[in-house]
Amino acid sequence: MTEDKRITIKDIAQLAGVSKGTVDRVIHNRGEVSEASRQKVLEVAQRIGYKPNIYASLLASQKKYLMACLLPDYGPGEYWERVAQGLEAARKKSEPFNIDIRLFTYDLFSIESFQKGYAEMIAHQPDAIVLAPTFREKVRGLVNELSRKEIPCLLIDSYLSDCPYLAYYGMPMFQSGYLAAHLLLDRQPAQQVAIFRIHKDKDALNNSAERRREGFMSYLADHHLECDLIEEYIHPYDSDFNGAVLERFFRNNPDIRHIITFNSRVHLIAEQLEREKRENTILVGFDDLPKNIEGLKKGSIQFLIAQHSENLLSYCADTVINRLIYHNPPEKQNHFVPMDILTRYNAEYYRF
């Protein structure tokens, strides 16, 4: 074959000694073909460098696909808003392949809301699904069910061990907790560490926060650090409740200097430190939310561990395109994105 001659299905059929229909079924993975014929076609196609015209095939078939994303609902400036901001870029990638991307949401703190959102999503018969495993065991069961139905499922924000999802995109959560411990404790030894957590529904186990906490505890064990851990719970939206809890906490623990949260709401702690004009504290948290960046610049937060979460859905779209259109599985299951360390000196340059 000369380089300027377009390779056709007819060429492959002649070289492999099979019919054009057989070649078509092998290339597009449809219909029944004997294994011997399949191997002949694949060997010839690889030898002569044949690549199917995907766009022409899509135009001819008029087949449309749906990639459904079930994510927690969000308000302005919240973490999941940052994730959802990646929808436009993901759609630009998927539209030429007749893949529509649709977003479904649920209350982050209600498993009943999650189940309702999942049922609504499944009713649209998606060809691929993106989930955040905020309800760990519930999502594990759903991923296994989707695998049995051969519906590709991708995870973002955190992943589940021993689970047949197609791909994960996000931070390595355990390692991010380990890193957070290093940032908090490496420069200055601590006798006490305050850990602020979020009140949730009893079923709403935050998988990412739990994995980060496990990484944090592993750092303490590996470095033989002995300090008292004082845990306190705050509410994601009740400012009056939080004000009372935080004021009482710091009144009862006036000497505490090391503070950490394993979620994106570190600004709630930073704002209390600013109100009390507390100094000489080290506060570490996660995610580049506007209020977190503000606390970083003011100096009430020392470190943020962040990722470009607006890219996660775009990464998922790439994998779904490869899976649905090219029939190529991802090279690996877990795709970890970089853990970026932000300080007051580099934060304003981060979102580019």
Automatic annotation (TrEMBL):
Q: Which PROSITE patterns does the entry link to?
A: HTH_LACI_1, HTH_LACI_2
Which InterPro entries does UniProt cross-reference here?
Answer: HTH_LacI, Lambda_DNA-bd_dom_sf, Peripla_BP_I, SBP_2_dom
Q: Which UniProt keywords apply?
A: DNA-binding, Transcription, Transcription regulation
Q: One matching Pfam family, short form?
A: Peripla_BP_4
| Residues of the HTH lacI-type domain | 7-61
Q: Which GO terms describe its molecular function?
A: DNA-binding transcription factor activity; transcription cis-regulatory region binding
Q: Which residues form a coiled coil?
A: none
Please state what the protein is called: Substrate-binding domain-containing protein
Q: Which organism is it from?
A: Candidatus Parabacteroides intestinipullorum
